[in-house]
Amino acid sequence: MCSSKCSRCIGISLFPLSICAIVSNLLLYFPNGQVLEASRITDLVWFFHGILGAGILILLPAFMMLGAGREGCCANRCGMLLSVLFAALGASGGVYCMIISSLGLVFGPLCDIGDEVYVYPFRNDTFMGNYLFNQTTWSICKRPENVILWNVVLFSLLLAIGTLEAVLCFIQVVNGLAEFACGMCLRKRKTDVAGM
Question: Cα–Cα distance between 70 and 43 in angstroms, integer?
Fold first, then answer.
């Protein structure tokens, strides 16, 4: 039972996801394509959840999974165990991205409500009165133009990417642990059969 193909598949699929997360997080720094002062950018963007969480922390296990997925590496217990540790790190990065993205969606963007007054107009809303369920409230934000739609799309994309990455990394944790345990059993049986 060799799970190297599964590891390789997961590793390959994590690369485009991490690049999309990094790009999406970078786009959040430029609402509606505008360059703003740092103090006028939504505070949750500065948590680097797409760059660090769903980006860099996913690239590390992706490279490790590709290495563990090479032919002949199934018998390498150390390689599979390292793959499990890096996959757990990647899963934590995906979960971090999910949490910050969810908060970004719930709290809403920082925007100018008129006369250069930048506030978070939706931070104190109840869940049912949230701006996500009532698009008529979106007109309160005057500048940057379309900032609410910009944030909703990008935070939603990052939430989906983080979720998918966390699931894939969790699959690799289970895959690596199973390979680690079963690989040891298979190796023991082979030495027992050879000894007879």
Answer: 42
